[in-house]
Amino acid sequence: MDATFDVKVWQIEIGSGRLRESYGVRWSVAGKRHRKSFQTFALADGFRAELVTATHVGEPFNISTGLPERHQPRASSVGWYDFAVQFTDAQWWRVSANHRKNTARTLMIVTTALMDRDPPGVPPRRVRTALSNWAFNTNRRGGAPEDIVAVLGWVRRHTPTMDAWIDPLVVQDVQLVLGTLLDGRRAAASSVKRHRRVLHLVMRYAIARGILLSDPVPEGRNLTPHAASAIDRRRLLNAQQAAQLLDWIRDRPRGGRRLHAFFATLYFTGVRPEEAVALRVSDIVVPGSVRSQWAEIVVHAAEPEIGRTWTDSGTRHDQRHLKGRAEGETRIVPCPPVLFRILRARIRDAGLLPGDRLFPGEHGGVLAGSVYRRAWDHACSAVLPPHVCASPMGRRVYDLRHGCLTMWLNNGVPPAQVAEWAGTSVAMLFATYAQCISGQDEDLRKRLDQVHDAVISSMAA
Fold first, then answer.
1. Each residue of 419-445: pLDDT tens digit?
2. How does DSSP assign 236-274, residue by residue?
3. How remote is the C-alpha of 355 from its chain's centroid?
4. Which residues, listed in sequence order, are joined to residue 15 by a DSSP beta bridge?
5. Taking a C-beta distance cutoff of 8 angstroms, is the pair 40, 218 a contact?
6. What tens digit of pLDDT does each residue of 305-349 get?
7. HSE toward the beta carbon, residue 209, CA cutoff 13 A
8. Fewest C-beta in 10 Å: which of 27, 315, 338, 436?
9. Can you list the pairs that 348-355 forms with residues at least 24 positions away whose Cβ atoms lie under 8 Å?
10. Which are the contacts of 378, defined by CB distance < 8 A and separation ≥ 6?
11. pLDDT digits (tens, 9 = 90+) for 6-16
């Protein structure tokens, strides 16, 4: 029998490498010494705890591998490609279309990094497409054409088994590839963070199925580039610029008034574009007297544009509940008089019924992102001076939301109320817009002067 109870586990060793410290776990099984290195103390301590626990409960250890029999991983018998496909299918129906797309991209990058060599005669772009659009897409894999099947078969034969993740150098190589673009430039910090998040999910899935003993991908803030969350003030449009852009769009001969109402809704209510395209006429509620001119908009769904190959419906837009809220929850956003008049005219001129989309596409259905982005780009080019158009100012349609939230904050709306209207948290609100709040210094100084005067008066008394 290749098993024994003769096991000794030593304390964690701390070594100093060229780039960083390493943490080693040493143990012996039937006199045969074993050692495994980790890049963080937490990973090493967790692995050592598993070994000690196995000795305490009397589990036999495999003499060849040095690991507990019951916890013996199956890494050497499971190929990475097969496992990645299995992971894709396991989580496909539980996640959003956008998460599916991000997962496929991460798995594609990792798989190409693990291949021992490139397939002969096949362009690298073709391999990447085969992996991201077919191998790691549960809906499409079964209908892959023969040439794609041939490429995927080659990849399956030339990717290692899961025990490759035990090698720290392999893990380092994969992390390097995830942080680098195809042209050699450094990837955006947000992309690296997203890739690492997906990779950790993959590893946890492997641990839960007994394929790996621990997550080989190190964690820690220092290992992920810092992603800037604060908004660049240069992106914000002032009121005059926003008005000029909206006026130019309104006067467009084709769909101008529809897009004018759409962009005005983003600017005056701060809703996200994927939330605005899901609005219906009945979502505009006029509380009390119509003469007040104030209304409310009930935001209840989001329809982000992901691509028909990733959605369950086969359409380009996914149907999701509101971000950060449970399914079925809604959010009430105030609709100021200026926007209410625009929307009321839009409904009247287009003859929209209560169940109709407030901003439909040109031929019905959901308003396409390519349509409103193209219109916005044309407006910026036509209205803004060249040096302003070349700057970050108003470069993205989403900047209209940023302008609205900044306007609320700068005009004294309590942050908690802004966060509620915007569908975000107060912490995220401050992290994103703290540098954009201005114009309140004088008022705040006056308040502090009053407090200081009261303190001085009390002291004199």
1. 999 999 988 888 888 776 655 556 556
2. PPPHHHHHHHHHHHHT-TTTHHHHHHHHHHHHHH---HH
3. 32
4. 22
5. yes
6. 998 899 988 888 888 888 877 788 899 999 999 999 999 999 999
7. 16
8. 338
9. 349/257, 350/258, 352/281, 353/281, 354/280, 354/281, 354/282, 355/280, 355/281, 355/282
10. none
11. 999 999 888 76
Cross-strand partners of 340: none
Region 45-64 average pLDDT = 86
- Single-letter amino acid code for the residue at 390: A
| Amino acid code (one letter) for 209 | R
- CA separation for the pair 246, 268 (Å, rounded): 12
The tokens describing 87, both together, are: 């992971």
Length in residues, the chain:
461
Whose tokens are 């259905």? That residue is 365
Find out whether 21 and 15 touch, Cβ atoms under 8 Å.
Answer: yes
**Alpha-carbon span 79 to 65, nearest angstrom:** 19
State residue 279's pLDDT score.
95
**Whose CA is closest to 172, among 9, 17, 57?**
17
d(C-alpha 424, C-alpha 150), whole Å = 46
Q: What are phi and psi of 165, to 5 degrees?
A: -70, -10
Q: How far is CA 265 from CA 138, 412, 414, in A?
A: 37, 21, 21
Average pLDDT of the chain, as a whole number: 86
Residue that the structure tokens 């769904």 belong to: 301
- Name 40's Cβ contacts closer than 8 Å, sequence gap at least 6: 23, 218, 219, 220
pLDDT greater at residue 17 or residue 361:
361
Tokens in use for 304?
């982000």
Name the CA dihedral angle for 105, 109, 115, 120, rounded to a multiple of 10 degrees. Answer: 80
Name every residue whose Cβ is closer than 8 Å to that of residue 179 and which is 6 or more positions away in sequence. Answer: 186, 187, 192, 225
> Could you tell me where the DSSP H helices lie in 270-414?
273-276, 337-350, 369-383, 386-389, 399-410
The gap between the terminal CA atoms of the chain, to the nearest Å, is 91
CA dist., res. 428 & res. 199, Å (int) = 25
Of 32, 28, 35, the residue nearest 9 (C-alpha): 28
Closest CA to 170 of 99, 231, 113, 248: 113
Q: How confident is the model at residue 81 (pLDDT cuts 50, 70, 90)?
A: very high
